[in-house]
Write a structure and sequence with these properties.
The complex is a heterodimer of chains A (140) and B (454). Chain A has 140 residues and is mainly α. Helix content of chain A is 72%, strand content 0%. Chain A has one domain. Chain B has one domain: TolB, C-terminal domain (Neuraminidase, 6 Propeller). At the A-B interface, helix 2 and helix 3 of A face loops of B.
């Protein structure tokens, strides 16, 4: 109803695309929280959790990045470019963060929580940009 | 002979090239220690295995090398028995679970540079009945062991360090097969078993056995509790199996040897990875009773490694410096004291088998070196003895592990990539000049001399 105010129906989103877009931020956030727990306790299992949560976050980030790229190229009423660029940034940051987490023991500090915080914010911003554009119906 | 000379010349040229490079001097008592590096991806070079074909390891002029046996279930350490028979410990241990995403990837990559042979879990005996240097006899001395590694003979007892226990066989000279299964002396720390090899040496009087136990991680990334009873040398009472930590903070003491004459225990130790291509030098050291050698809190004395948390400044303050750096990432896995029967150049000192490691874009190690001693202490730079394990084509044909000196004048080298036992002998000009069957020179004085001048 509200969407028809602009005279167009809202742009639909594929449910899987939405699920992938929404999956990454909580996983990156989980990595951040695990990094903080490792920083507070020096208990290495927390850094193992963080490393796996990052793997978990990178899989949907990678797929949604590809999906958004294809949507940008193919669809007339596509996704905002900002969403794609933020996803790309999240992917690069997440990759660097993953390599940092491959270091042994305290070698991941202090880079790990900094990178995990950054990538969590960027992934959240990407999801925001993606979902906020739904009601607008077209690319800005 | 001409080929030997050519080979020696090429080896010399290779040595010049290496010295002309930018690698810091990391041998001796005061190795250069650059700053720590933490790259996003550690520099690495995995051995690219190739068969020997017509190639052979390279030895100095005046020496010859032959393959005396091959086809082992991964040849690690050897022991020369009193009658000249050679025992070969065969096996692959470890099998720690992959814990992190990295473990899956690194495990896959590193496995490419090692033998694909099945773990033999046995001791093979090699015999040269007529003393012609051809080991025509071959029997399985004992099997159903668990990744045996360290070997020591004390009187009529043959001690074998499995990856999880120290066991004992009764042995009589000339025996080719154990009479039965071994008796257990004591269990050894085996949980996770990241560094699984258990090295072994016996005190001169045979009362004590020394067992080298490696750490359960590179630098505590499996947690501090996993390091209980790890990274140390145990002293085990041979009669009762009772043990105590003899020296600690030794990250991976992969081979032990008792110095003839002094009875002093020596070890080669593999130091930590992922601090850069020129950290941390592996080392050769006398092992002092009660000493702490740094791992995991510090290296080469008091150089703090902040990756081990929580830190322990008191332990760092107590850390002693090892005696002799061998170079970073050479992965020393064998050590043996020489005898004058090895020729004048190698009369006093130790041979060190350097397996070579992954954490360097320009590999180091992959050879056997000789560290000369004077007055019972290391004196002077290491000398290449067996090289050519990595060909000029960049492929790797062998990786030395255990080294053992046959008192009749031969160096036995176990190669765990091609699963070959190599034998290096001085080339004798006439049969009359042959060395006696026992080391002729008396042991050197026990008094430690002033330290080396380099």
């Amino acid at each position: 109803m509200a969407a028809s105010a602009a005279g167009r129906p809202p742009r639909p989103i594929h449910p899987l695309h939405a699920a992938l877009l929404a999956a990454a931020p909580p996983l990156f956030l989980g990595a951040l929280l695990s990094d903080l727990a490792y920083g507070a306790s020096a208990e290495v299992q927390w850094s193992n959790f963080a490393a796996w949560l990052l793997v978990g976050a990178m899989v949907p980030t990678g797929f949604v990045l590809l999906w958004t790229l294809v949507a940008l190229i193919c669809a007339r009423r596509g996704w905002p470019l900002s969403c794609f660029l933020l996803l790309l940034a999240a992917f690069v940051l997440g990759l660097v963060d993953s390599f940092v987490h491959a270091r042994d023991a305290w070698g991941i500090m202090p880079a790990a929580p900094i990178l995990s915080a950054l990538v969590s914010l960027v992934a959240l911003a990407a999801a925001w940009a993606g979902f906020a554009s739904l009601g607008r119906g077209e690319r800005r | 002979m001409r080929r030997l000379a050519l080979v020696a010349l090429l080896a010399g040229l290779a040595a010049c090239n290496r010295d002309g490079g930018s690698d810091p001097a990391q041998y001796g008592a005061n190795p250069q220690l650059p700053g720590q590096q933490r790259a996003l991806v550690p520099s690495m070079k995995i051995a690219d295995p190739a068969p020997w074909g017509a190639e052979r390891p390279v030895v100095p002029e005046g020496y010859a090398i032959t393959a005396i046996a091959t086809g082992f279930g991964i040849a690690r350490q050897t022991l020369v028995l009193p009658n000249g028979d050679i025992l070969v410990a065969e096996g692959r241990g470890g099998g720690e679970p992959a814990l992190r995403p990295k473990d899956f990837i690194a495990g896959f990559i590193k496995a490419k540079g090692t033998s694909q042979a099945k773990s033999g879990n046995r001791l093979t005996l090699l015999r040269d009945s007529d003393g012609d240097g051809v080991y025509e006899g071959r029997t399985i001395f004992a099997d159903k062991l668990n990744a045996p590694y360290g070997l020591a003979l004390v009187g009529g007892q043959l001690y074998v360090a499995n990856q999880d226990s120290l066991v004992r066989f009764a042995y009589a000279t000339g025996q080719t097969r154990a009479a039965g299964p071994p008796a257990k002396v004591t269990d050894l720390p085996a949980r996770i078993n990241h560094h699984w090899t258990k090295s072994l040496a016996a005190s001169p009087d045979g009362r004590f056995l020394y067992v080298g136990i490696g750490s359960n991680s590179n630098i505590t990334e499996r947690g501090m509790p996993a390091e209980i009873d790890r990274a140390m040398v145990w002293e085990v009472d041979a009669a009762t199996g009772a043990h105590r930590p003899f020296a600690t903070g030794l990250r991976n003491p992969t081979a032990l040897a008792v110095q003839p004459g002094t009875g002093q225990l020596w070890a080669v130790v593999n130091e930590r990875d992922e601090l850069g291509p020129n950290l941390v030098p592996d080392y050769l050291t006398s092992v002092r009773d009660g000493a702490f050698y740094g791992w995991p809190y510090s290296y080469w004395g008091r150089n703090v490694d902040s990756r081990a948390q929580p830190q322990d400044p008191q332990k760092v303050a107590s850390a002693v410096r090892p005696d002799y750096g061998l170079g970073s990432h050479v992965a020393a896995l064998g050590v043996a004291f020489s005898t004058p029967a090895m020729g004048a150049r190698f009369a006093e000192g130790v041979f060190v088998g350097e397996h070579g490691s992954w954490n360097r874009s320009r590999p180091s190690g992959y050879k056997v070196v000789f560290v000369p001693f004077r007055g019972g202490r290391p004196a002077g730079p290491p000398v290449d003895v067996v090289t050519g394990f990595q060909g000029r084509d960049g492929r790797t044909r062998g990786r030395p592990v255990g080294v053992t000196v046959d008192p009749r004048g031969a160096l036995i080298v176990a190669d765990d990539l091609s699963n070959t036992i190599w034998r290096v002998v001085p080339v004798r000009k006439a049969p009359a000049a042959e060395a006696p069957t026992r080391p002729a020179a008396p042991p050197r004085s026990d008094t430690p001399q002033a330290s080396a001048p380099y």
